[in-house]
Structure formats: C-alpha cells, structure tokens
Amino acid sequence: MSYFAPGAMSVVLSTNGTWPNTTQLDIKPFMRAFTKSEACEWCRAHNVPLDDRERPQVNFASSQSRDFKIPVDTGRRVALLNELFHSVPGGQEILLWFTAWGVWPSCERVHMFERFRDSYGEHRSLSDAPAYVFSPTEREDLMSFAGFGILFLWDCHVITANADTWLFFSHDEIGWICSNQPLLTGKPTD
What is the mean pLDDT of the chain? Predict the structure, then answer.
C-alpha cells in the first residue's frame, strides 16, 4: 500500500502494514510552519527589515514596484495570483507570512484553511504558526497557500530568501509586488 503527502515522496508500507524505518529513507523536509518569532528570525537572517510591529517592511524604489487591485470575482483572483507569481523568481526558499486575518469574517472559512494545513501535517492554529517557508521545489504548494490569502482577503507577505522580490496581498483588496528583477509588463486586470 502506498501513501502520499503533498510535497513528499510516496511511502510504501511493508506487507505487514508497518511503516518503514524513516532513518533509512531519504525524505527531505518540506514546508515548514513558523511562529511569528521564527518568521522574524528568518527575516533577520535574510536581511528583510521589520517594522515596529515586527512585520516585513521591504524597501524598493518605485520603479521596482507596482500595485494592483484584488478583483471581486474569485476566478479573477486566482488568475491574478498565477500572473503575479510569474514575477517571483524560483530557485530559492520563500517565506509566506499571514499577518492579519479575520478582518472580513464573511469572506473567509478558517476551517477550510485549517483542514488544508492538516494535510501538510501542521496542526497548530494560524495564530500560533502564521508563517511558512517553502523550498524551491514547492512552488505549487506556496501558490496554494497564497491562494487562501488572496481569496479570503488576509494580509499575506511572500518574500524570497534573497530579499529580491516581495509580494503583498492586503485585506483592503489591494496589493503590490516589488522586485529587483524585471516585473511583468502591464498591470494585472481586475
């Protein structure tokens, strides 16, 4: 019998139904959930400045950033998410940090998010572990987590380990992307 965990390899049970000895398997850790304190440490280690409330405060020139409106239609929100991630470089760890939720309770389902996180083996509450670090091979996982931010209108920071790109979604139905890399041409449509 075979089981699959998102972002991990499938594991085959022995014929007697027991799990193999994990010390003999080459299983790499995947998505790591962080407390606020651990997220702050990650930011400091990657030269990402924090504001007085210990939230990311990335500084880019206006020529290196653009803002956008988050569309009302959920299908357009997902399309915007896909478009924006084309400007987020791969090949490095990425921190995703939810810094505000519950502002618009009528447009969120925290239980959906909790069950989604459960599938990754993370059982702490969002307030206990609001940040996540994804490896370069977990881009789809990262985008799925970010999808909750844009769909539920949670404040969500997406920051590369090189601090060369920062994507932010706000509960105010706006956002911005900043990068040292060339950004997409044009503005996302709403």
Answer: 84
Which H/E stretch holds residue 176?
strand 174-179
Look at residue 12 and give its three-state secondary structure: strand
Cα(first)–Cα(last) distance of the chain, in Å? 46
- Distance, in Å, from the CA atom of 60 to the CA atom of 128, rounded to the nearest integer, reads 30
What is the distance, to the nearest Å, from the Cα of residue 185 to the centroid of all Cα atoms in its chain? 23
For the stretch 23-32, pLDDT in tens is 444 445 588 9
The secondary structure of 111-123, three-state, reads: HHHHHHHHCCCCC
Question: Any bridge partners for residue 39, and if so which?
Answer: none
What element of type H or E holds 26? none
Residues in the chain: 190
One-letter amino acid for residue 80 of the chain: L
SS3 labels along 133-150: EECHHHHHHHHHHHHHHH
Structure tokens at 164: 């060369």
- For 120-152, the pLDDT digits (tens) are 999 999 999 999 999 999 999 999 999 999 999
Q: Report helix angle 139-152 to 110-118, nearest 10.
A: 170
